[in-house]
Amino acid sequence: MGDKILSSGTPLRIGLMGFGQTGRQLFDLASSSDDIQIVAIADIGRPQILHYLLQSESPRPADFRLEGNFLHSPTQRCRIMSIDSPGEMPWDIFEVDLVIDATGIYRDEEFMRAHLAGGAPRVMIRSLPGDVIDRIVIPGINGDAIDARDRMISAGSPTTTALCLLLHILSESFVIECASMTTVHAYTSDQTLQDYAGSDYRRSRSAPKNIIPNGHDAGRWLGHVLPAFAGKVNTSALNVPVQDGCMIDTTLVLDRDDVTAEDINEVMRRGAAKFPGAVAVVEDPIVSSDVLGSDLSLLFDTQGTLKAGSHFVKTLGWHETRGHAARMLEVARLYAALDTSAEAA
């Protein structure tokens, strides 16, 4: 994908805060590698239940066993700590190289600095930031721009990564004047099962019973990854009664009126080859469940490409959270390679 990943021969030591769906996917993916070790997990869940959930979701449940407060896999031996606040976790004890905050809750600078104060040399959040950030990194797009001085980083979000990859590939062949993206998104763990008074009116309604319109921060932060699109893309979300699997519905406004749907599809076919493991193209009439278990960040749907009028083109792309977990580990490897190069210089 263009980013250089070097190996120092010493596994990267990662601390993980939050063992929800993304945290478990990170651990599962790391357990299939020999260059990453997750050495500590901070989560208030009982270790027995966390282990049970990991086994229930992994395609290799027999690979994981629990011994006391230690979670084992063929390549991992990880201590589970009953801690729910970034400022309480003593990361320095575990000599971590990087902390991944996979909670999706602690997005603000104060929480990231709390991780750093606890001994984390660098912290990555699984979502878009709440206020400030040193860098948002999407592998293959701006991974070569990272700096060893970066301390607070984000790997974007599943939707943001899918959108950035789509825009990046298409903008190499077409001039996109502006765009509008709606993510049709599976409901999330912070939504309520029954109607319950929450942070706003719509999010107070039952997730399994409703299509719930939401805002999305991708448009706000897009310029940090793709400067040419700053202020040119509106983003929103529809949370739907589906547990897993998401889709981005993106309408592009092009400067030319002679671009066909097949032109768009052909550019995506060629572009996908530049992002092996992250982008692919599907020609079949798939639905959301067909993307489950995929490590891709964008599965472009050629049957969803439609020309509307002279300058408007509508596109569809699919993804699920496992692909985002895979990209987060790629970002971790990029910084490990950068640190190794700096030490060798």
Describe this entry's structure for a reader.
- By secondary structure, the chain is an alpha/beta fold.
- It has 2 domains: 12-133, Rossmann fold (3-Layer(aba) Sandwich); 158-320, Dihydrodipicolinate Reductase, domain 2.
- It is 26% helix and 26% strand.
- It is built from 7 helices and 16 strands.
- The strands form 2 sheets. It has a 9-stranded mixed sheet, sandwiched between helices. It has a 7-stranded mixed sheet with strand order 11-12-10-13-16-15-14.
- Helix 1 crosses helix 7 and helix 4 crosses helix 5 (218-225).
Quick tags:
nine-stranded mixed β-sheet; seven-stranded mixed β-sheet; 2 domains; Dihydrodipicolinate Reductase, domain 2; alpha/beta
Task: Report the β-strand fraction as a percent range.
Answer: 25-35%
Q: Strand order, biggest sheet?
A: 3-4-5-2-1-6-7-9-8
Please report the number of helical segments.
7
Structural class: alpha/beta
Could you tell me the CATH topology label of the largest domain. Answer: Dihydrodipicolinate Reductase, domain 2
Helix-residue proportion:
25-40%
How far the N terminus sits from the C terminus, by CA atoms, comes to: 25 Å
Order of helices and strands: EHEHEEEEHEEEHEEHEEHEEEH
The multimeric state of the shown protein is single chain
Number of domains: 2
Gyration radius, in Å: 20 Å
What is the CATH superfamily classification of the largest domain? Dihydrodipicolinate Reductase, domain 2
How many strands appear in the DSSP assignment? 16
CATH level-1 class of the largest domain:
Alpha Beta
- Shape designation: globular
Mean pLDDT: 95
Low-confidence stretches: none
Tell me the CATH architecture of the largest domain. 2-Layer Sandwich
Biggest β-sheet strands, sense, barrel: 9 strands, mixed
